[in-house]
Amino acid sequence: MAKETIKIENLKRQFTMGSETVHALKGISFTIEEGEFVTIMGSSGSGKSTMLNILGCLDQPTSGNYEIDGVKVKNLSKNELATIRNEKIGFIFQSYNLLARTSAIENVELPLLYNSKVTSEERRKRAINALEMVGLGDRLFHTPSQLSGGQQQRVAIARSLVNNPVMILADEATGNLDTRTSYEIMTLFQELNKKGITITFVTHEPDIATFSGRTIVLKDGEIMQDYKNHKVQSAADQLAKLPLENHLS
Ligand SMILES: Nc1ncnc2c1ncn2[C@@H]1O[C@H](COP(=O)(O)OP(=O)(O)OP(=O)(O)O)[C@@H](O)[C@H]1O
Ligand SMILES: [Mg+2]
Predict the structure, then answer these.
(1) Could you give the CA distance from residue 27 to residue 150 in angstroms, rounded to a whole number?
(2) What are 32's strand-pairing partners?
(3) pLDDT digit string, tens, across residues 172-225
(4) Does some domain include residue 7?
(5) Closest ligand 1 atom to 42 CA
(6) End-to-end CA distance of the chain, in Å?
(7) Nearest-angstrom CA–CA distance, 216 and 223
(8) 122-160, pLDDT tens digit by residue?
(9) Is the dihedral of CA 196, 242, 225, 23 positive or negative?
(10) How far is Cα 166 from Cα 34, in angstroms, rounded to an integer?
(11) Beta pairing class for 89-93 and 167-171
(12) Pocket of ligand 1 (CB under 6 A)
């Protein structure tokens, strides 16, 4: 049997707002195996970000179980959670979350600063490698404002890779990008997935979901559908088919 990278059981998360309780997740269970590329779909407010934040150990569920890479997350201390986040998970957000006025290479080095086992030379080497992997080997010293949106997202992807995480969690990672740039980024995600990286990718867009092998659809905090995609589209092929006038950025 393949290794389970994510295993959640009856996960619930509620938020108390004054006298009102919001049931953002109402008991969600699934497993994601090592090497899968899963998209999470669902309308606004369906609980996608709430779930991803729990998967990324940024938030704790109200109840239910969660195991990442065989480690039970419940009852871990803040420090242990931070270590798991740093060593096992790469995050990518819609708004890139890069430090302004800080070069691409320094942004990518950031997660390694917390790792005392990595020397500064090793840090630089790994950051350069990660930036080369995302096609930015010639933009090492550009700051975010000197990069396009797609390039900034590539820096964020390089940053997420620099610690060799067991999985990448992305929340609307193409949400701010035009179609062409989105497909370029999806081409990159498909390449990373081919190298064995497990990816969980939240998106609003059905065409983005066709690039993944499996889609989980949430509605009002519950799983509506969980299906395998038997005809995964190649983002590189779709990119090649886009009309050139679409290239506005
Ligand atoms: N910190 C919080 N406090 C109170 N309620 C919250 C909090 N975070 C999320 N919620 C509520 O939980 C529900 C799910 O929110 P969530 O952000 O997970 O939705 P989403 O599917 O990511 O939506 P979108 O597509 O708009 O990003 C919403 O009703 C939201 O208002
Ligand atoms: Mg969201």
Answers:
(1) 36
(2) 6
(3) 999 999 999 999 999 999 999 999 999 999 999 999 999 999 999 999 999 999
(4) no
(5) 21
(6) 45
(7) 7
(8) 999 999 999 999 999 999 999 999 999 999 999 999 999
(9) positive
(10) 8
(11) parallel
(12) 15, 17, 22, 24, 42, 44-50
| Domain count of the fold of the chain | 1
Determine which residue's CA is closest to atom 4 belonging to ligand 1: 15
Assigned domain for 70 exists: no
41: containing domain: 36-50+80-240
Global confidence as pTM: 0.93
The answer on pLDDT for 245 being more than 80 is: no
Structure tokens at 243: 């009309």
User: Which amino acid residue places its CA nearest to atom 5 of ligand 1?
Assistant: 15
Q: What is the domain-level CATH number for residue 109?
A: 3.40.50.300
Nearest to 202 by CA among 27, 44, 69, 89: 44
Asked if residue 69 belongs to a domain, the reply is no
Structure-block tokens of residue 214: 């499996």
Complete edge-to-edge strand list for the sheet that includes strand 63-68: 20-33, 4-17, 63-68, 71-72
Look-up: residue for tokens 């997420």?
160
Q: Which residues pair with 12 in a beta bridge?
A: 26, 63
DSSP at 197:
-
